[in-house]
């Protein structure tokens, strides 16, 4: 079942992208409206149009809005740590080992399943497997995510994420001593042509920018180093800030500059895991303005036990 929404673009609408104007009229997120447009559910002056089409005053727009559908994900009573919650959004501290949302072949035990049980129905994009999800963390990355609880929250958070107004900062332990205490990695990322499950820095990839700062350096002297009187292995605790949000961005960028993350099975280059069973990457800080009230919001998540234990071992000069 669908319902038709029609409107004539006003002078105030002139110059607006079609997906933006439709989002305002049908009370759905801009991402949802872009999908409707791509699916040929939106017509301008009787013909399908692109999401990027700029309206002119007098344009006649017809939107076939599908009836709301239940998300494919199902509630599961899985304990999760909700750091903050209100009518429009919540902030959760995701544990390592939990996927953010269901995917084909893996439909249970995800953060989305847990959120549906804890919060009830969440705004979804065309019945997708990602209700409430505005951004993701890799399964084996721990830390903070902001989740939309209301349609208004989804629209505002999606807009702010697209406009890079949501600040996401991570802590990571990497191999090697960084040549500069601070830096910016500006390197495009795309699918690895040799392994479609991985990503790599590629000239024809999408722009990806990561800021980094070295917070602490460790010297790890093994028995072999001592016997040969060779310099100790060095590692660093670094803080990273995303300017873009490409899949595996931090992990790919760290590996690309010769400082892979400890424990990263995909991008670590076969280096020792130092007791970690996953990559030593934690989404530690999250800052944004509330999409409805405009209030400044700031959250910090402490290191999980495995990450904290790794840092303590390295401070003591121990590998495991």
Question: What would you note in describing this structure?
Answer:
With 320 residues, the chain is an alpha+beta fold. The protein is built from seven helices and 15 strands. A hairpin with a 6-residue loop joins strand 14 (281-289) and strand 15 (296-300). The longest helix has 12 residues, at 151-162. Residues 223-227 have low confidence and may be disordered.
Instruction: Give the topology string: H per helix, E per strand.
Output: EHHEEEEEHEHEEEEEHEHEEH
Our count of helices gives 7
Strand content: 25-35%
Which quaternary structure do these chains form?
single chain
- Give the low-confidence spans: 223-227
Please identify the structural class as seen in this structure.
Answer: alpha+beta
How many strand segments?
Answer: 15
Largest sheet: 9 strands, mixed
Shape from CA axes? Answer: elongated
What gyration radius follows from the Cα positions, in whole Å?
23 Å
Give the N-to-C terminal Cα separation: 59 Å
Helix percent reads 10-25%
The pLDDT mean sits at 89
Layout of helices and strands:
Elements: E1 2-8, H1 18-26, H2 30-38, E2 42-44, E3 47-48, E4 60-66, E5 81-85, E6 89-94, H3 111-119, E7 142-148, H4 151-162, E8 167-175, E9 182-186, E10 189-192, E11 195-201, E12 209-220, H5 223-228, E13 233-242, H6 249-256, E14 281-289, E15 296-300, H7 305-315
Parallel strand pairs: 7-14
Antiparallel strand pairs: 1-4, 2-3, 2-4, 5-6, 6-7, 8-13, 8-14, 9-12, 10-11, 12-13, 14-15
Features:
single chain, alpha+beta, nine-stranded mixed beta sheet, 15 strands, elongated
